[in-house]
Amino acid sequence: MQKILILQDMPLFMYRAYVYNNLVERGYDVTVVSLDNLGNQLEIELHFKSRKKTYKKFGPFLYIRNFNEFNLKDFDIIIIDPNIRIINYIKILISTSFRHNLIAWGHMEGRSANNKLAQKARVYFLTRLRALIFYDKVTLNKFKKNGFDKRSLFLANNTQYVDNKDVNMAQDKKYFIFVGRLQERKRIDLLIKAYRIFKDKTKTNIKLKIVGEGDQLIYLKNLARNEKVIDSIDFTGKIINERKLKILFEGAVAYVSPGSVGLGVLHSFAFGIPVITCKTNIHGPEVNNCNESNSFIVDLDEKAIADKMCLLYNDKKLLKQMSINALNYYNDNCTLDNMVDGIENAIKFLNNDKTK
Are 228 and 345 part of one and the same domain? Predict the structure, then answer.
């Protein structure tokens, strides 16, 4: 049984726990190192070895405490997030000892995409690895064009695990929905303003559900009062229970997130919910799964958002077709099995390449 070490640059979230459990089911001995100063709790049984590590910050850099408890040479494959802000990971990327059993898995461009020096450093490290696993096809194709060997590049669409076998596409659509952290970068203020315009135009009792918690909660509630829509908005708080989320998504007209979007795109598609978002450079790579058949990407403006909310509400035929397209896209491209297939393909490539 091959021993796989996975080095994350984030806490262990439930959507990733499903991926690692699946790798174990496929016959791998998996150990996962996650970074968590808060103590993130999960609702599922873990079949892999989980090692939560705390860290200390030095400006933009992180140092993982007690990282040396691992003998990296005990593992057949090391899958690492190529985050050049983590001092411990930089040491591994620099080392020649692990080059033949090291796979990078992550955003690849990450936060350094607009920092030319940081991006050069990241690309330098990536050229030293034998295989790269990408979150999305657009970024993978960029690396192909930049001279990376296409045989060593693999796609594992970052995704949100959803058991959508019995998704109810016929359920009445009673509200628009946002699910995520209530942060400034999400531009939920624009959503609330767009919702007020939508209400004024349609004179409907369709509600807005804002699911999540964050430092903008009080500001957003005050904004809703000022816009005179507070009675039509449900601030539900954070919900992570899958069954409750399933019920919430199934009743939504669309998932609306004007600012930064990431996994919320795939979570919505999994239930056949179209996405409305805006043109901005702070999206996660998951936004590359949006296309004109399943989403609207409009200007960063409340009127543009409201127009698409009105269109989906008024045009039931269009809403039905976009919902079907969203669900089909998820099932064809972004299931958990698709993601794990991409990871396993990279592992198999490394195994075969070592024997040559």
Answer: no
**DSSP 8-class letter at 301:** S
Smallest CA-to-CA distance from 299 within 282, 283, 277, 322 is with 277
Supply 337's token pair: 């099995």
Q: Is residue 258 part of a domain?
A: yes
Instruction: Determine, yes or no, domain membership for 291.
Output: yes
pTM score > 0.90 for this model? Answer: no
- Same domain? For 98 and 181 the reply is no
* pLDDT value for 284: 87
Q: Is residue 238 part of a domain?
A: yes
What averages of pLDDT result for each successive group of 10 residues across the chain (356 residues)?
A: 95 91 97 86 88 93 92 94 92 85 86 67 85 92 90 91 77 92 96 98 95 96 98 94 88 96 93 96 89 97 98 96 95 92 96 68
User: Are residues 106 and 187 part of one domain?
Assistant: no
Distances (CA, A) of 307 to 34, 243, 273, 311, 315: 42, 31, 17, 6, 12
Boundaries of domain holding 120:
3-159+335-354
> Three-state DSSP class for 117?
helix
Structure token pair of residue 152:
């060593």
Report the pLDDT value the prediction gives residue 41, as an integer from 0 to 100. 72
Please state the domain count of the chain. 2
State the residue for tokens 């669900």.
327
**In Å, what is the CA distance from 131 to each residue of 22, 70, 84, 136, 185?**
21, 22, 17, 15, 33
Instruction: Assign residue 148 a region (left: φ > 0; alpha: ψ between -120 and 50; beta: otherwise).
Output: beta
Q: Which of 85, 38, 84 is nearest to 59 (CA)?
A: 85
Which tokens belong to 25? 């089911």
Instruction: State residue 110's pLDDT score.
Output: 60
- Are both 89 and 181 inside the same structural domain? no
Question: Which residue, 81, 89, 40, is CA-closest to 64?
Answer: 89
pLDDT at 108: 84
